[in-house]
Amino acid sequence: xxxxxxxxxxxxxxxxxxxxxxxxxxxxxxxxxxxxxxxxxxxxxxxxxxxxxxxxxxxxxxxxxxxxxxxxxxxxxxxxxxxxxxxxxxxxxxxxxxxxxxxxxxxxxxxxxxxxxxxxxxxxxxxxxxxxxxxxxxxxxxxxxxxxxxxxxxxxxxxxxxxxxxxxxxxxxxxxxxxxxxxxxxxxxxxxxxxxxxxxxxxx
Length: 204
Hints:
By secondary structure, the chain is mainly alpha-helical. Helix content is 36%, strand content 8%. Strand 1 (57-65) and strand 2 (70-77) form a beta hairpin.
């Protein structure tokens, strides 16, 4: 596993356009993922470019170190708490197996909470979602919902007690080096926010 990740970090590779893992299948943007070196103990099906929709994933994002120390960083994403627990268990088992294979190595695994599915809080009060949908309709936009495979500020705010469903901004190729948005989409987004403020005033 360490050797394969080091291959991914070695210098001299040509620069390639980055695409975010939340886009799912085909997001890698480097080459055919079936040919890319993978952590041998991490199932290929758990990687973001092999998943889509509401499937969770484990994303190796960085490695650094020296001759005596190595740090590997992963992002774990899932819509359900049980899925996150399963991803965590996967990494813990990999670490345990590596300890057994090389007892001289000291391997520590730490986890830092980042994002949770805002549904766990919004389902108790769906007014923010319903008003956002009505605001979009008043702006001439047909609302629809789709899963966001990454974390958002709205997730953190909702978890802290301020229900904040995500509203569109019209962005395309999000978080890539070619992210862009049209003026028309931005106008619709701004109009939606104005209608939303009015709706909350009316419902107060």
